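Objective 1b. Sequence-to-structure analysis of Delta-1-pyrroline-5-carboxylate synthase.
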Amino acid sequence: MMNGGAAETPRTFVKEVKRIVIKVGTAVVTRGDGRLALGRLGALCEQIKELNYQHYEVIVVTSGAVGLGRQRLKYRQLVNSSFADLQKPQDGLDGKACAAVGQNCIMALYDTLFSQLDVTSAQLLVTDSDFRDKEFRKQLKHTIESLMSLRVVPIINENDAVSTRRAPYEDSSGIFWDNDSLAALLALELNADLLVLLSDVEGLYSGPPSDPESKLIRTYIERVHLGGITFGDKSRLGRGGMTAKVKAAVMAAKAGVPVIITSGFDPESILKVLQGDDVGTLFHRDAHLWVKTKETGARDMAVAARECSRRLQALSSEDRKKILLDIANALEANEKVIKVENEADVAAAEQAGMEKSLIARLALKPGKARQCCITSLSKSLRVLASMEDPVGHVLKTTELADGLVLEKTSSPLGVLLIVFEARPDALVQIASLAIRSGNGLLLKGGKEARRSNAILHKVITDAIPDHVGRRLIGLVTSRDEIPDLLKLDDVIDLVIPRGSNKLVSTIKASTKIPVLGHADGVCHVYVDKSANMQTAKRIVVDAKVDYPAACNAMETLLVHKDLVSSGGLNELALELRNEGVVLHGGPRASEELSIPEPASLHHEYSSLACTVEIVDDVHAAINYIHGHGSAHTDCIISEDREVAETFLKQVDSAAVFHNASTRFCDGARFGLGAEVGISTSRIHARGPVGVEGLLTTRWLLRGSGQIVDGDKGVTYTHKDLTTV
């Protein structure tokens, strides 16, 4: 688990520091208008002069050249333009040209300032391609060592003017990708004792520094803070920002070089760091050994969720509704930062070579109505909020005896533990259903969606009022915590696993807590001999192609044997192939269509592929589905009502359709507002599980002093008052 911060740590190691790399960010070098921040640079140079005097070995990595060059070239462009030229749209300035001019400017400034302080500086320009050469790195190290032996301050910058990077200000490939990572790399190459990254804020915060709720993190602990930090916008002028600094800091710290991110606006920040003052944010390989983390145990998390859920249940229907509406508004207000975090997850998944079907689930792409995903999710929340309050609904009223009335009412289950795939939109749907149904919630999402889940969880819990408590919804960040949670059958009331057959089976075998869910989505479409072929082709293509990764997508196409001779089978196969679907065949279809057999007839492809098989009639189709299906969603396409009714009544699946795509099996499409998943269980809830599936019942008995006393003085009436 993660908490908001960590205890302060002694920084005694700084007493042993002799060689220090200082990286100066663009936001430190320049003012808000892009011009030089002479005061800050002067203070920086004075600190370096003091360190030089105290025999520290100081290496500076500086940013700011491109910004300064752009200022110069804009002025040059202006004075060289005629009045007529100024009326035309101005072309953007070439970044490499800006870098060339800016490098000259910034070094001239450093030279002037250091000369006034009787310090000599030297410039070294490097590129990513240079660092690929071992001999270059060896020579660079030798040169820097020689300079420092003469008390000269080396000032290093990436040579953007001649960089061969595809997009110098966006491309993050290569050995280093910006001056933060260059500084980290140099710190390792030069065996530095400390790396200081100067920024325009005091250090790393738990959220955007402008957010009053954000807290400064004094010591970064990966297991505590990873996934729990919401970054703001990137640098206003540079190409990195805090995200880049943290990435570089983690890399250097893991390799053994301590890192401190602190403010370059403080005229004594570097001196304070070397005095051991608790400034900025420390990254250290051994930090986890120093800090007593206040981690939330599994039981504490579950108990907190239960306590918050009881406070939620005590609210009026309107107050619970308002929470959902506030969350919908918060999602829309934070759409930009949510997209940034999600895009980072998607990029990481693509780089890791994840299957396209899994990446499709991971991406917060346009929703079912082709709206922006965040807009679509917010709309679903508002639909859910507008529905009749499901909590405390009187299901049945019975008069047991005169003056003794019994009510059966709907009630929340309590605390839900939901383990779900790397699908961030599921987090929002699940959380909204839990709130609407008055339940506490513990969530464990796929690790591939770590950043997306973290920001969505923060946005949602921040919208929950204090009198209910943000711990109503807990986010489990480590797979290692799941076994402990599964032991809490006295606190957690229902587990809903969403994912692979292996995941569901493992969870069922590991807990006494009731488990609700489905292991596979092996959905069938049976095309009867009486089917309208145009209708059949439309439904079959939609069921497979609309969203192949969905659990309600068609995985097996069953075709009546008469459609082989009539050409219907070939028509269906051609339609699917035209959509890029790879066909596999059962024993009969593989021979008829000359296609390979699948490894198993019970197979969920979750991609543009499916199994095709030929059956004798509707009864054979039903038997095939019972033998190889997963009791999820199955469909018949037929114009024969008697055959269709046979199929609808005898197929033992959670959802059975006639002349409609399997893709309709969805909580939103069923009008449930959202769904926590689709259950193939036969106890409690089956099919798309909306609010009703997260409720149980309670009995409320209202009397006027009655006692049992062997039933001597009670005349039971058992009169149904439900409709009265």
